[in-house]
Design a protein that fits this description.
The chain is an alpha/beta fold. It has one domain: Rossmann fold. A six-stranded mixed β-sheet has the order 3-2-1-4-5-6, sandwiched between helices. Helix 2 crosses helix 9 and helix 5 packs parallel to helix 6. The longest helix has 18 residues. The radius of gyration is 16 Å and the shape is globular. The N and C termini lie far apart (about 50 Å).
Length: about 240
């Protein structure tokens, strides 16, 4: 119990650290929505976290941020499993330079795993919409970035959540991780007919410049996330 309390306290402190200023103008407000469901084991989760850290400290990403009209992006990190297991793990942070990027990456990597359970992509999107609507950043580009290795199998339909995001002017992009070790009971969850990337295209992503990037394994996650961030920042500058 004591260890669980300390883990919860640490997570709360991480989420509240380095708050962004109200009304701050940025080139993009981005919510990272990350699958931590049962199909992702602890080793894969560690690779996922390391990949986010590597992406946000990659000089190509930092240079892309600096080249924006305002030279700043606001970002927050959310983890989800089943419908009642979704949480903002790292609070809103405005990244302008190397120091800000390193701090955000460190807080992601230091945070304990939030949940284990079925996969409610819809719950992750719902919280992301709430965070974007309630934030007061001045920006014309609001994006939800969903990464995961399976379909929605908990909570409400993901298409309903997606449609609400699009109606609010929010774009959703996807990063699909191909699980090459599916268990017999969840093969269609991680490898649906037509492939996971097609399922994401049909059910998850949408909005201006929406795209799905496929990762063949968790070891490739960091490089894929780097490319994804650069693409999203480039779209923000184009608007």
């Amino acid at each position: 119990m004591r260890l669980a309390f300390l883990a919860s306290l640490l997570a709360a402190l991480i989420a509240c650290a380095a708050p962004a200023r109200a009304g701050e103008p940025v080139d993009m407000a981005l919510v990272l929505v990350v699958d931590v469901s049962l199909s992702i084991d602890d080793g894969e989760y560690a690779l996922e976290k390391r990949g986010y850290g590597a992406a946000f400290t990659d000089q190509r990403v930092i240079d892309a941020i600096r080249r924006g009209p305002l030279g700043a992006v606001a970002v927050t990190y959310v983890e989800f499993a089943r419908a009642d297991q979704v949480r903002q793990v790292v609070g809103w942070t405005v990244i302008r330079d190397d120091a800000g990027a390193r701090d955000f990456a460190a807080r992601i990597e230091q945070a304990p795993r939030s949940f284990r359970g079925p996969t409610a992509i819809s719950a992750g999107i719902d919280l992301a919409i709430q965070l974007l609507v309630e934030s007061s950043f001045e920006t014309e580009r609001r994006v939800i970035d969903v990464s995961g290795d399976g379909t929605n199998n908990s909570g409400r339909t993901v298409t309903a959540a997606r449609d609400e995001a699009l109606a609010a002017g929010i774009s959703i992009n996807g990063l699909t991780i191909i699980n090459d070790k599916p268990r017999f009971y969840n093969r269609e969850h991680t490898q649906p007919p037509g492939g996971l990337s097609k399922w994401y295209k049909d059910n998850v992503v949408g909005g201006v410049g929406a795209f799905v990037l496929e990762v063949q394994d968790f070891e490739s996650f960091g490089e894929a996330m780097t490319r994804k961030l650069i693409s999203e920042i480039a779209l923000a500058k184009a608007e």
